[in-house]
Amino acid sequence: KQEVTQIPAALSVPEGENLVLNCSFTDSAIYNLQWFRQDPGKGLTSLLLIQSSQREQTSGRLNASLDKSSGRSTLYIAASQPGDSATYLCAVLMNRDDKIIFGKGTRLHILP
Amino acid sequence: EAQVTQNPRYLITVTGKKLTVTCSQNMNHEYMSWYRQDPGLGLRQIYYSMNVEVTDKGDVPEGYKVSRKEKRNFPLILESPSPNQTSLYFCASSSGRVAGANVLTFGAGSRLTVL
Questions:
Q1: Is B41 in CB contact (< 8 Å) with chain A?
Q2: Beta-bridge partners for A11
Q3: How many CB pairs under 8 A join A and B?
C-alpha cells in the first residue's frame, strides 16, 4: 500500500530564506506527483504537477523535482515571503488503480 | 471561470438523517473524487470516478455512497450519518490519466458536523 510522507510536519524560517520541503513515497508506480498549497480553512490550490517521466517543474519562485526510483520529491521555495505561509501537501496518482494518495503536509510559517 | 462547486459549505445535522453533498465541475473533466480531511490524518480519498457510471472506492469508503450519472456532477451521499463522519470534505476533478492527467482542481470544501 502506497504511503506518502512529508517531513518536517512544521517549519518556521525567516523571510528571505530559500527552503526545501520533502515528500517521499513507498511505491514508485506513480503516474504523476502534485504539490498543493492550502491556507487555513480553505481548499487546495495546485502549485506544480510533475509527470512520472519528468525530473522537475518550475513556476516562478517554486521548483519541484522528482526522483521516482528513489521515491522522493522536493519543493524548493526561493526567497521566501510571509505570504508563502501555508500548509504544503504532495499527492501521487497511482498507475494501477488511479487512486490519489496525499501526504499529511508541511505547515510552513515565514517569519517577517 | 473554471471551477468545482460544492454545496452546502457548512452543515450541521443529526445522527441518522440522510444527507447529500453536491459537487459540480464546468471543465468537462473525466475524473472526479471526494476526500475528507481530519486533523492528524490528512486528506483521505473516499470515492473516485473515472467517467460516467464508473465509480471506485478510495481508502475510506465506509458509510458513503456516490453516483456519476452525468459527467459534471458527483454527489456524495451519507445514508445514515454518524458523529465519526464529522469532517471537512473536498471534491476535486481533473482530466484523468487517459487524457494526460492535468492538475487536480479542488472545491472550496464542505464542513460537516454530525451530532
A1: yes
A2: A108
A3: 62
In chain B, what residues touch A102 (CB-CB under 8 Å)?
35, 42-45
Q: How far is A95 from chain B (nearest CA, A)?
A: 9
Asked if A49's CB is within 8 angstroms of B33's CB, the reply is: no
Q: Is A91 on the interface with B (CB under 8 A)?
A: yes
Residue B103 has what pLDDT? 83
Give the number of other Cβ atoms within 10 Å of residue B40's Cβ.
6
Q: What does DSSP assign to residue B71?
A: T
The alpha-helical segments, DSSP class H, found in chain B are none
Distance in angstroms (rounded) separating the CA atoms of residues B85 and B50: 25
Is residue A42's pLDDT more than 70? yes
Closest CA of chain A from B91, distance in Å: 9
Q: Evaluate the CA torsion angle B4, B54, A101, A17 in order and state its sign.
A: negative
Q: Give residue-wise pLDDT tens across range B80-109.
A: 999 999 999 999 999 876 555 678 899 999
> What cell does A80 get?
521566501
